[in-house]
Write a structure and sequence with these properties.
Helix content: 10-25%
Distance between the termini: 32 Å
Largest sheet: 2 strands, antiparallel
Structural class: alpha+beta
Order of helices and strands: EEH
Shape: elongated
Mean pLDDT: 93
Strand content: 15-25%
Length: about 50
């Protein structure tokens, strides 16, 4: 599966689209397919490494 990942803090340029292994659900867990999500100010601050 594909995921947007970052390995260090910084601007949006640090985001990379990578192929990652699909997780295998364990007992009493489910795997949910996500089609879309939001990006909030909190996620942007986390990516930049800024404190709240």
């Amino acid at each position: 599966m594909k995921a947007i990942v970052f390995t260090h803090y910084g601007s949006p340029d640090v985001l990379q689209l990578k192929a990652v292994t699909k997780p295998t659900p364990r007992n009493k867990e489910v795997l949910i397919r996500i089609h879309a999500t939001t990006v909030t100010a909190a996620e942007c601050m986390m990516r930049k490494g800024e404190p709240f």
